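[step 3/7] inverse_fold.run input=structure_tokens len=133
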């Protein structure tokens, strides 16, 4: 997969580029008045992504995913949060909870591969209560 890491190469990191262009647009008044507008846009982009996935158009779905991610950076900007830090924290929460899911299965003598989707969901819900990061 390409574009997963930011490097010191010739192009600007996509996250920084997205934030920079958003800041430029905002500085001249091309922005939402409040986070409510951003959240509505995020829902619109999510709906478009769902429609593209359901239609089986992978290329269009990729475009819509990009739009959704770009809009998520706007949400971060309105919350005065660094999107990469938010992603890193979410990844840490997921990792801790997934490790808990693995441990719960092991305690019951199961492998995750042998579990039904329903059992995995049940482990996940238990892990969310046990791991409160």
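[step 3/7] decode complete -> sequence:
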């Amino acid at each position: 997969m390409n574009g997963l890491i930011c490097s010191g190469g010739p192009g600007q990191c996509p996250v920084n580029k997205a934030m920079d262009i958003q800041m430029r647009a905002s500085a001249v008044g091309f922005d939402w008045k409040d986070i409510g507008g951003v959240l509505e846009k995020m829902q619109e982009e999510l709906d478009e992504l769902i429609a593209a996935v359901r239609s089986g158009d992978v290329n269009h779905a990729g475009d819509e995913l990009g739009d959704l991610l770009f809009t998520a950076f706007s949400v971060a900007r309105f919350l005065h949060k660094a999107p990469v830090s938010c992603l890193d924290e979410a990844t840490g929460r997921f990792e801790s909870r997934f490790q808990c899911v693995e441990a719960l299965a092991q305690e019951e003598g199961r492998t995750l591969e042998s579990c039904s989707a329903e059992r995995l969901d049940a482990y996940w819900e238990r892990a969310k209560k046990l791991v409160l990061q």
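[step 4/7] annotate
DSSP finds five helices and no strands in the chain.
The mean pLDDT is 93.
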